[in-house]
Design goal:
two-stranded antiparallel ribbon; Rossmann fold; 53% helix; 19 helices
Length: 527
């Protein structure tokens, strides 16, 4: 009996060393009734928690037997003490700098919803904060595979497919363009590239065919931009004129929109020089934009041949006016332009003027007439040599200076001839003026003109005679325009309307012929 009491006392000391919750657990479950020591030991052994397993919930182990009020009262304060810290703990507020920036729109919650379906349920704010922390701002990949929609996958697939098709087609096209020449015309066009199967010849034929394909868009529309000269209207020289900032100036304002100004003296310049030169308008503007302006600018068609953007050449990123396509002798061609890049193929044939910006007092265009008239009068075989002598100089000023020197020398020779006796005959006049027999046309008098011998005696030079004749022709032309100009324009309008009507009738006849043939073909079997 004593041994049992001693064992019970040792077990009681051991139970006192256990955790407080484990020590109180038997008190909550079993009523505080006296029992033999052996029964107490059995109950303690059966209720002793295993050190390898965590203690079970006290509510699951509670028995339906009534509890001791004293035990309940002693356990209640401890439960309240344990519950107070849990109730007093509140969630910490999220720092302001971790909140999402709603000024750029509401952040997407797609990834948060996907994580919730996978078993995770973080808030959208926490997801946004974690993404910004992981990727330094923006959408972070994390360890999860990025979501790709079906349309995005289809787009990527089609992109790869089209790139593969384009690459394959390019390789096949290059290989096909390197084939042998198909006929003698192609072979004659490329005599330095013979047929053969070597890689070098294959590549040379590919380059040649590719250059021809590209040149279709870069070269002028025709090999000959102008038809062959007509002997009845042939002029000894050809004068090409630019349009923008030389004959006209276009500007746009908010008050008036687009407006086009005609350069002062343009009508006189064109009409006067039309008796000496074959006038060609050579502009970089497309036909659809420039043709209405040209028709309004020159209603009487003194400009014989208008050439538009389609007649220019595209080279090294710039538009070039290549005079070699004009079908004219370049030694008799002069071009007036405002940009040196436009005439870089034949700079020796060009006179580059300053762009006209709408100045109403401008006289630069009219000041060029004496120089151009002098070239026609003297019948130079190559105008490029004359233009070369004026290179880098203001042509009207330099020509006036040279003419003054020539006139002074002419008057000096005339005085010497008068001292030796009066010259007679056209040969003497030609020798005095330094003219060859082929250039004596200006010394042949026309009806109503002063005799060249009398003009010579009065101190007039050959260019003076040519200028007087040119002025008389211009005045006669202006008189015809004033008297018959409206009639000419009306006749031209009627001719255009007649041509349009004939074209419409021809087109309708073709349509009716097609439908009529079908109808006859359908009725023939019935007959």
């Amino acid at each position: 009996m004593l041994s049992r009491v001693a064992q019970a006392s040792r077990l009681g000391l051991t139970a006192g060393r256990l955790p407080r919750a484990a020590a109180l657990q038997p008190l909550r479950i079993r009523p505080a009734t006296a029992a033999p020591a052996s029964q107490f030991l059995r109950a303690y052994a059966s209720n002793k928690p295993n050190s390898a397993q965590p203690p079970k919930d006290t509510q699951k182990q509670a028995s339906p037997t009534p509890k001791d009020p004293a035990a309940e009262s002693s356990a209640a304060p401890e439960d309240n003490v344990a519950q107070k810290p849990a109730e007093s703990v509140e969630p910490e507020p999220i720092p302001f700098h971790k909140l999402p920036d709603l000024t750029q729109g509401i952040p997407s919650t797609l990834e948060a919803e996907l994580e919730q379906r996978a078993g995770k349920s973080p808030s959208a704010l926490e997801v946004g904060a974690e993404e910004e922390t992981a990727s330094g701002g923006g959408r972070g990949r994390g360890g999860k595979e990025e979501y790709v929609s079906t349309s995005e996958r289809n787009r990527k697939w089609w992109t790869r497919f089209m790139l593969a098709v384009a690459g394959t087609g390019s390789v096949v096209s290059v290989a096909y363009m390197g084939r042998n020449w198909e006929d003698s015309i192609e072979a004659d066009r490329h005599p330095d590239i013979p047929n053969g199967w070597s890689p070098l010849l294959w590549w040379q034929r590919t380059k040649a065919r590719w250059s021809e394909s590209v040149s279709y868009y870069q070269d002028p529309a025709f090999e000959k931009l102008l038809p062959d000269p007509d002997p009845s209207f042939e002029r000894p020289y050809t004068l090409c004129l630019s349009l923008d900032d030389m004959l006209i100036h276009s500007e746009w304002t908010r008050e008036h929109g687009w407006r086009v100004a005609k350069r002062p003296g343009m009508d006189y310049f064109i009409r006067y020089l039309s008796q000496y030169y074959e006038l060609v308008l050579f502009t970089t503007q497309p036909f659809g934009m420039a043709e209405p302006v040209v028709r309004k600018l020159d209603p009487f068609r003194f400009i014989m041949w208008p050439l538009y953007r389609e007649a220019t050449k595209y080279e090294d990123g710039e538009i070039v006016k290549d005079l070699s396509y004009l079908n004219r002798d370049l030694s008799k061609v002069i071009i007036l332009d405002t940009k040196a890049s436009h005439v870089r193929k034949q700079p020796e044939n060009a006179i580059v003027l300053e762009p006209w910006k709408g100045d109403a007092s401008d006289k630069e265009l009219v000041a060029l007439i004496p120089f151009l008239e002098y070239i026609h009068t003297m019948q130079y075989s190559d105008v490029r040599k004359i233009l070369k002598s004026f290179e880098g100089k203001h042509i009207p000023t330099e020509f006036a200076r040279r003419e003054a020197i020539a006139r002074k020398e002419f008057n000096k020779k005339l005085a010497e001839k008068k001292g030796h006796g009066k010259p007679s005959g056209m040969g003497a006049l030609g020798n005095l003026l330094g003219l060859k027999p082929s250039k004596m046309s200006m010394t042949v008098p026309v009806d109503g003109e002063q005799d060249p011998s009398e003009a010579y005696a009065q101190g007039k030079m050959i260019q003076d005679l040519a200028r007087e004749r040119g002025q008389r022709n211009y005045q006669a032309l202006e008189k015809e325009i004033r008297e018959n100009g409206e009639k000419w324009l009306k006749e031209e309008q009627q001719a255009m309307e007649k041509a349009q009507q004939e074209m419409m009738n021809s087109m309708m006849g073709n349509f009716s012929g097609m439908f009529g043939s079908k109808k006859e073909g359908g009725e023939a079997p019935k007959a």
